[in-house]
Design brief:
It contains 14 helices and 14 strands. By secondary structure, the protein is of the alpha/beta class. It folds into two domains: about 70 residues, Alpha-Beta Plaits, CATH 3.30.70.270; about 260 residues, Alpha-Beta Barrel (TIM Barrel). About 35% of the residues are buried.
Length: about 350
Amino acid sequence: GDDSVLGDLADRIIIRMRQPVNYEGHECRFGVSVGIATALGTQVDPRKLLVDADIALYKAKSRGRNRYEFFSQELQAEVVKTKRVADQILQGLDRGEFEPWFQPQFDARTLDVVGCEALVRWRHPTEGILAPDAFLSVAEELNVVGTIDRLVLEQSLKWQAEWLAAGLNVPRISVNVSSRRLGDEQLVPSLRELNIKPGTVAFELVESIFLDEGDDVVHWHADQIKELGIEIEIDDFGTGYASIVSLLKLKPKRLKIDRQLVMPVVESTAQRHLVESVIEIGKSLGIDVVGEGVETMEHARILRDLGCDVLQGFAFARPMAAAKVADFVRAESWRGGAGPLRQNRPVVVKRGLRS
């Protein structure tokens, strides 16, 4: 059909456009994306056709470039929805609708609260509290993730000061920092202005930021951040690309084991071997290890006995609004459900077993 002919043509265009071109002694390469829209009949509106093709082009770029996409009504509906969410995000930033929620973190041995992870939530005027999966991809396209990161940090510091003034000890706040924010030239100067007390704030960075051939600017900023007394944590460790070499170069304070590795440890001996190996890597490098995704006390017991330093997950606490943190910490209700941990039964991991 006509679509297959147009698709073949787009493929040929992409192949030809990707061929290297010599310019003033330099070999230049180009990427190309193609948006395709068609119309039948004698009353075709060329302007609408161009708009439709542009929508398809936008989709092609968002899916990785060097490809083509056809316009469809479903695609138009998706773009309209994205545009609506984008407008609402910008309005929400102006209205102060983005706020930190906090998930407490616990010492694996004593079960004392040793910190909280700050997680952004959008208090949407009509849809209620929204988690990042409802808006983060659009925020990235708008290039406002750095702004959201900054707002979460500043609000978290205010809450931390309020808790301290009320006699409540939340030793550390961990905040997520995007790769774009980490590469921002204004990041370090803006952090200096906040006068953060050393050891009270940690930046969580996804491990994919730190490939061995990673951006020198990002590594330089990480070093500057540590000089300000802000700790570095590698988030979701074990499922990305970080190597021992990159860990030695970065020297983070903590590794957070990805929940995908943690979840199966109750049933799978092989998975316990893997988690134990990650913990041993951290210990050998002098890095504390945090277990994420601790959904049951059995998870907590296994991770503790394997050597995890800090535990975080629904078994102890779900993310909560900032106003609820003080009452939660004072009540210490999580200790009542920690019976399996008190039994102190060691986990025996026998090499060579499979499950």
